[in-house]
Specification:
This protein has 31 helices and 26 strands. The radius of gyration is 32 Å and the shape is globular. The strands form three sheets. A ten-stranded mixed β-sheet has the order 5-4-1-2-3-8-7-6-9-10. Strands 11, 12, 13, 14, 15, 16, 17, 18 and 19 form a nine-stranded mixed β-sheet that branches. Strands 20, 21, 22, 23, 24, 25 and 26 form a seven-stranded parallel β-sheet that branches. It is 43% helix and 15% strand. It is an alpha/beta fold. Helix 10 runs parallel beside helix 12, helix 12 packs antiparallel against helix 13 and helix 22 crosses helix 23.
């Protein structure tokens, strides 16, 4: 054992009527903490001990102070620490607490009678209003500036407004309001999330005002049945009491819904209710954030929304609003479960349909299955609103919705085995979707020509497809087009299997389409294929999938027939661990983590050494798609500021390399790349010509990307390509869909969590992180080595997944399940097929080599971009930047 030393200290403590300040040294960080009030209270050192104990527990060791504290508090904090340490083992985010040994003198309990006064914290929220309305013995209220409302800065005006409203409410109640201003969070936030620390912060304020009161009530955020083991909790609140003041919890006997129902009976509460913590543009209640949205839904469900006048009148429950909901702990989940219960009790199927996906997502996030409730009692039965969607039931065979050219229709009619491929590629030019289709086609190529492979594309994108096929190394030979409206124009005819069909494959190949954006359409495509197979009745059908990413909210709303067919897929390989958990809970037979299907193509890439000479290249994929971000202007500003900050910090010049991933007649990222280039050039930053990513010419593009120092990407597959090249990569995650994508990449490649760019991300902080990691010579070298190792693991996972997928498909096509290979005895014909496969493989390799060497189609697209009007207009500016350099 080494020599024991004091890790933390409370020093320079000063008290005066209405004032307390001290220096809190926690580890190597020292913060001057202060509390102030106009009320006539002279505090003791107890407030300092209550404030510092939990932040110190993030580090362990000892906490020393020379000012005397309450004997009861000194005893109680030992039990408080023991409980919090045990609880921290289950906290999300890897927060672990260690007990600290407190060394402090004790004071003799001061004689004196009780004040007879009882105070409660009063923020104007649901929980604090419940405490006020349910405790007639209350004599005082406490409002703190510096907790959820900053004591200084841009929210000062809002804090003034809130204080004014609460003073008015306190006056109506006939109770004095004590206002405390503090900077406690400047000490606590660097060590603990506010949701964990605020109970200790409240105890510190209670001790600060202790001379005035016998008891101080702290509202708990949930009832006893679902109360979380953090923040304020009935088990720990009382342990922070002293001889002169008892700290007690309140509210555990009533759920938040029940509290809200009681609150809406009081007109004063209805005028001043405040739940918003985000307060955009200084709003008292914005009506859009997660807490506002949940409260408004609850008020609507109990029929009281019109009574509460402190919220906007509108209630928007669209996908964009619900996408803002993040359920990160059991208390929030229990409230949304209660919302679902009250919606069902009130017969509000519309609210139920909005709430149920949020609950399912929250349960999955916290590791619960889709039907697991926190409350022991059963909830009300569903209203039936969620049972309307059944996309997969067998369709009328006479109603065709799959069409093809006569050549493809003839191949289908004469085939002995068919494979329907439904996945990311639908005929539109997303780089990642094209890659995944290429990987699926390459995987099944050895089974051709006996297996006729039929990628299902959208009829509406039929005209786009030939242009995109020309940019593929292995374009599909037999595409079929989905058109439920029955459009056979353009020379297309309905397809139908012939009498010789003996086996078939339904294959969901990879992509993030099992969600509310595209999932319904993909299921409808597979339903059309399944309808044809139901009519043909082949002897063997194999249903299989790989590389999938699923949204729990979408899975939760599937009808029973859809769910049953998805469960019939014997393998649904997941792209990321979260999807694996969701699909496993969904009931699928086998859900291995297959990784992304595009790795089947990207695995040929190898990490490159970054350029050592000037300049330092930053790869930038910027897009304005609404499914990526709802604020493209802010995202563009972030990119520009980030590059400018990197230039400011580095000892080498910085050059931006734009990347384009989505390019077809419908969706074209060239305009976004153009705007990015203009904005960068206006800041004096050099910009190279864009690189368009396509399978054909991928090596040519990878050579340009691979010399970069770092990549910033809005696209999952641009990020994956960069990571497979061993480049540190930042991914944009402005919504839950992209957060899941980014989390999967962080899981697969051991990068810092700060490499995920959420909404409101700070470019300066991001640049600082990059400077300390990816761009630091030693740290960057270690990170690249780690990325190379992780890339190898990703490749190995893909190889295993190909075995999982190809083996069962090959067995089905060859008839091995019937005891003898379908091709047995065919001798020379088998040899011809094998030679045919080898010939097509060589042709594909030659085509790839040709594309790698020339990449002519990509260069033509670049020429089109660089000949655009805005690109020409900004050329002098970009040339000037180069000359200045």
């Amino acid at each position: 054992m080494g020599t024991t030393h004091f890790d933390h200290e409370i020093a320079n403590l000063r008290t005066a009527p209405g004032e307390l300040s001290f220096d809190a040294r926690i580890g190597e960080r020292t913060t001057n903490v202060w509390m102030r009030t106009a009320s006539p209270a002279t505090p003791s050192a107890d407030a300092a001990l209550a404030a510092v104990t939990m932040p110190a527990m993030r580090h362990g060791g000892r906490l020393r102070m020379t000012d005397p504290v309450s004997p009861r508090l000194l005893r109680g904090q030992r039990e408080f620490q023991a409980i919090q340490r045990i609880w921290s083992h289950d906290w999300i985010g890897g927060i672990a607490l260690e007990e600290v040994e407190v060394e402090a003198p004790t004071r003799d309990p001061e004689p004196g009678g009780a004040t007879g006064r009882v105070a409660a914290f009063f923020s104007g929220g649901v929980d604090s209003w419940d405490t006020v309305l349910e405790n007639p013995d209350l004599t005082d209220l406490i409002f703190v500036r510096g907790f959820d409302l900053a004591y200084a800065g841009p929210h000062t005006r809002l804090a003034d407004q809130v204080e004014e409203r609460l003073r008015e409410a306190a006056g109506d109640l006939g109770l004095p309001l004590h206002v405390v201003t503090t900077n406690l969070r400047e000490m606590g936030d660097p060590h603990l999330p506010w949701g964990i620390y605020y109970g200790s912060a409240g105890a510190a304020i209670a001790h600060f005002l202790a001379p005035l009161f016998d008891r101080v009530l702290m509202a708990t955020p949930a009832d006893y049945e679902v109360q979380g083991r953090w923040g304020t909790n009935w088990m720990v609140n009382v342990l922070m009491s002293a001889e002169g003041v008892e700290i007690a919890d309140h509210g555990g006997h009533r759920s938040r819904i029940e509290r809200l129902e009681r609150l809406t009976e009081d007109p004063v509460a209805c005028r001043s209710l405040r739940v918003c913590w985000e307060n955009p543009d200084g709003a008292y209640n914005c009506g859009r954030c997660q807490k506002c949205l949940a409260t408004l839904i609850a008020l609507e469900a109990i029929g009281a929304r019109g009574r509460v006048t402190s919220f906007p009148a509108e209630l928007e429950l669209g996908p964009a609003e619900l996408a803002r909901v993040r359920i990160g702990d059991s208390i929030v989940l229990s409230f949304w479960e209660d919302l679902l219960d009250v919606a069902r009790r009130s017969g509000r199927g519309d609210l139920e349909a909005a709430i149920a996906p949020v609950v399912t997502t929250g349960r999955a996030t916290l590791g619960r299955n889709r039907d697991q409730r926190q409350r022991r009692g059963p909830g009300p039965p569903p209203t039936g609103a969620l049972q309307a969607r059944n996309l997969f039931p067998a369709a009328d065979p006479s109603e065709r919705s799959l069409y093809a050219t006569p050549e493809t229709a003839a191949a289908v009619a004469g085939a002995g085995s068919l494979a329907f491929l439904v996945g990311g590629y639908d005929g539109s030019g997303n780089f990642g979707d094209v890659l995944m289709l290429e990987a699926a086609l390459e995987l099944l190529a050895p089974l051709e020509p006996y297996l006729v492979v039929l990628p299902v594309l959208e009829r509406r994108y039929m005209d786009h497809h030939p242009e995109l096929a020309a940019q593929m190394v292995r374009p599909p030979r037999y595409p079929v087009y989905f058109d439920p409206e029955g459009g056979g124009e353009g020379g297309l005819v309905p397809i139908a299997p012939g009498p010789g069909l003996d086996s078939a494959v339904s294959y969901f190949y990879g992509g993030g389409y099992f969600n509310g954006l595209w999932g319904d359409r993909k299921l409808a495509m597979m339903r059309a294929a399944e309808a044809l197979l139901a009519e043909a009745k082949p002897d063997r059908i194999r249903r299989i999938g790989s590389g999938l990413s699923a949204e729990p909210a979408w899975l939760a709303t599937l009808g029973e027939d859809d769910a049953a067919l998805l469960r019939s897929f014997e393998l649904l390989g997941s792209r990321d661990p979260r999807t694996g958990e969701l699909l496993s809970g969904f009931g699928s037979a086998l859900v291995p983590e297959s990784g992304d299907d595009a790795v089947g193509i990207l695995r040929r890439l190898r990490p490159a050494e970054p350029e050592g000479a000037e300049p330092q290249v930053v790869n930038l994929h910027f897009t304005e798609h609404d499914w990526v971000t709802d604020d493209p202007g802010a995202l563009l500003d972030f990119y520009v500021e980030l590059v400018a900050e990197l230039k400011e910090r580095g000892d080498r010049d910085v050059v931006a390399q734009p990347l384009i991933a989505y390019l077809d007649p419908r969706v074209d990222e060239r305009a976004a790349a153009d705007r990015l280039a203009v904005a960068l050039a206006e800041r004096g930053l050099e910009v190279r010509d864009p690189v368009v990513l396509r399978p054909a010419g991928l090596g040519h593009a990878a050579a340009k990307i691979g010399v970069g120092a770092v990549t910033v990407a809005c696209s999952y597959h641009v990020a994956l390509t960069s990571l497979m090249l061993g480049l540190p990569t930042l991914t944009v995650a402005h919504n839950p869909y992209y957060e899941q994508k980014s989390t999967g990449l962080i899981d697969a490649f051991d990068q810092p969590a700060g490499f995920v760019i959420g909404k409101g991300a700070d470019a300066r902080s991001c640049a600082e992180l990059l400077a300390a990691t990816a761009l630091d010579p030693e740290a960057g070298r270690r990170l690249r080595i780690q990325l190379a190792l992780d890339g190898r693991a990703v490749r190995q996972r893909r190889l295993m997944a190909e075995t999982d997928v190809f083996g069962p498909i090959a067995a089905t096509v060859a008839g091995l399940e019937d005891g003898a290979p379908r091709w047995a005895g065919e001798g020379a014909d088998v040899d011809r097929r094998v030679r045919g496969v080898e010939g097509r493989t060589r042709a594909a390799e030659e085509r790839a080599a040709h594309a790698e060497l020339h990449a002519s189609n990509l260069e033509a697209q670049i020429a089109e971009l660089t000949s655009s009007t805005s690109w020409r207009l900004t050329r002098p500016l970009r040339r000037f930047v180069r000359r200045v350099r």
